[in-house]
Write the structure tokens for this entry.
Amino acid sequence: MSAPLRVVVGTAGHVDHGKTALVKALTGIDTDRLPEEKRRGITLEAGYAHLELPGIGVAGVVDVPGHERFLRAMVAAAGGIDVAVLCVASDEGPMPQTAEHLDVLRLLGVQAGVIALTKSDLLPGLGAEHRELVLLEMQELVMGTFLEGARIVECSARTGQGLPELVAAIAEAVKAKQEAPRPEQGPLFLPLDRSFALKGFGTVVTGTLFSGALGAGDEVDLVGAGAKARGVRVRGVQVHGAPVERARAGQRTAANLAALEVRDAPRGAALVPAGTLESIGAAQVLDVELELLPWAVRALRNRARLLAHVGTAQVPAVVALIDRGELAPGERALGQLHLSHPTAAIAGLRFLLRGDPGAVQRSHASTIGGGRILSVSPKRRRRREPDVLALQALAGEDALAQADRLLLESGYPGASPPRLLARGQFTQKSAERALERLAQGGRAVLFDREARLYAHAEVLQALEEKIAARLEEHAAQNEIDPSIAREELRQRAGSPPPKLFARALAALAEKGELRADSERVRPKGTAAPLSGPSADAQEKLAQLLEGAGLEPPRADELPGLVGQTPQRTQALLKALVSAGRAARISEELWFGAVPLSHLRTKLSAHIKEHGSIDAQGFKELTGLTRKFAIPLLEYFDREKLTLRIGDKRVLRKGEH
């Protein structure tokens, strides 16, 4: 067998127009595998085969049901089709399901295909006028679609007439599609259209790989359709019935999953990379670009309730229109799908909308529109200018504008390249490049190098403003001690990630708008001048601490020594810290700034000379007991002067 291509060929057309017979004639594979399909002579579930295209490779083949009652099964399989073979029986011509299948293919983004005029061996008996009429009807049906101008091949599965020409026409369409394959560099996303147990192997799932790649040994999560399996190991992968090292985007893929029951891998679920559920997985809100078919009998109103086909899942949905109040037939709009339950989805995936058959002029049809997903799990939007502009950016072709908008909407948590590619239409490389370019242009800030997390510059600016405002509010309410604990200020500012908060604090400190140490944040300048008893009490406490040197009284002894209540003594101590005249070493110990500064200089000089110091050496250096020595050592660790390595301390980098 030739190399497997990253292209899937799919049949479409009305029931009993020879799709399955044609696939069998081309591939030698009977895709009707169910006993009921054999008995009734019609396809009920999608079938799968593969077709050798001489000189090109082997393409996957999907044979979809034609009966309108099984449209859900047709749609579940059609989402993976790249090249369509629209089958029209020569004796009947285009029929109701022919038209709806063509709508479905176009809405799902299929852009290449051929038309097979099946049962062509019947044409001679029907007369020349019949043939011309069928061809005219076909040309009229496909006018304005991706099949306008496509080759029409007269063929017969029974006699073999036209089959070589049909294969050649399919090959030409496949060549064109190969120039724009599905995104292999994107995150793994494999919507499941089938799962079954295979004796000796366990559970096998199949689907068309929408993006990414999948190989033996990978770990995956199953999401959507109620699936909750996490960290499942892939035992093996096949493409066209043959084992492969890795299946690639665009290929019909079968995966053998370890320690998983068939019921845990339902149709409608999808395989995604293990451990990425925060960014890739089941969503209930989708940003979308959608269109209403031209033959809808009425406009689509905001908040309309319809059935959405997303991947291989069918789910009730509310359509929220964002850029208009209603969508007229034949027009496009920007909006959101609010799904009734979590559904496997990824940006770039196409979807269908179906409603009551009476909603379209074609009495048989229930497909009324569809579109593409712009982003996954966004905030709920309203009909206002910022949200319209956001959707316009996401629907455009400018990757930098898309990244800018998604990063802005990520807020405090920010976005890493994996988060960005999961929410928008990116590859790993394009997501990295977009974030780097935003940072270079001053639109983004890398605030966590280890996790590669960026925050939007506007988010950081807003955080700085909020921190300054909260600090000002606190200072106004605390005259004696306007300083505030770092963690308390972070929570008052909306609990941003600690590293983003630290970045904002550093920026404000650099601008001179506040002062911060490892524990507290103070308004710019010193504490507000005090007068009367407060000033006297503060000075008395400062002198007491400085006079005590490196052996100050315990915190619970201080109120009695300065004649203040415990609460007021605490406030006075914090005020001294804000003024730079004291430091809190532990819950029980507060030191004067002058003796602490002298000790810092002495300790630094000692370590520079000897390379390190341990607890015993520190006690000998200072003459202090363990009661004071250990808290002081831990304080200098927190202050980033020293670094503990085993039982010794060394100077941190930059202190030498």
